[in-house]
Amino acid sequence: MQITEVNTLGALREVLESEESRQDDLFRERVMEPLRPVWENMLRFIPGQAGAGDPALTAARMMRLYLPEMGRERGLEALGRLERARVREENLGALRRAAGALRPDEHGARLSEVHLALTLADPEGLGEEGYTGAGNTPGWVMVSVWPKEHNLSRLPAVTAHEFNHNVRFGQPDWTFPIPLGAYLVAEGLAETFAAELFGPESLGLWTTTLGMEELGPLRPRFQAALHEQDFNVVRGYIFGDSVMRQSGQANGGGGPGLPPYAGYALGYHVVRDYLARTGRTAAQATYDPWRQIVNGSGWFTA
Question: What is the top-level taxon of the source organism (predicted)?
Fold first, then answer.
């Protein structure tokens, strides 16, 4: 498997250092064009967006990327912080480490090449945490960040999480329509795999803020919906009510009262308990069927 870095951070520096009149065109050419496989795929699944206006800039705003209109000096200062923290080198190393742990070639995973792209985020676009990742496009791992004191050290775990998705989503177990149980396990596997490589302290608040006292009462609701396949309903369970509303979507059907990122936290505990009961690692379990993991976790047994 070949790993290819797509240097969008260096490209954005070129854009911001250019004449203002050229910046939008250069942004399309240097930043967004190399990312076309990611955002074209994204727009295809969003009604009314694929042919709306300038597709590259539309996608950039939806992805919460830093655009030239957000300011030259502010952007260059943030890029400088990322360069001094060696985020490109650190995350390229994290991806190589994750690939070495998962060994997808030995498991028949269809990943001949994986692209790693780190992007500068809209400083107001990703909440207090200031970072996110995406691994739902085959062969692509994306990490987006607005640098803050607390988040740079956590980016390698995000890279590992998203690469785990790349591998997991290529398994026969991941088919459309996606049942809630499969989605729950995929997020739990990605987080336990990241913790396996970089320690549980590297995980985001979406996984760690809910404890057993909050998750225990949610167990029957998730158990009853494990085979639910309506994607909006499934996402409601994974992301929770307030996150769905913030993203401009109505409640996904999980019902009122689901806390933010409930599915991430619950999936993490389901997978952790499966690993504890079976003695398997997260890397090994990445190739286990989701029903086996759910049933073996002990979370949903009568």
Answer: Bacteria
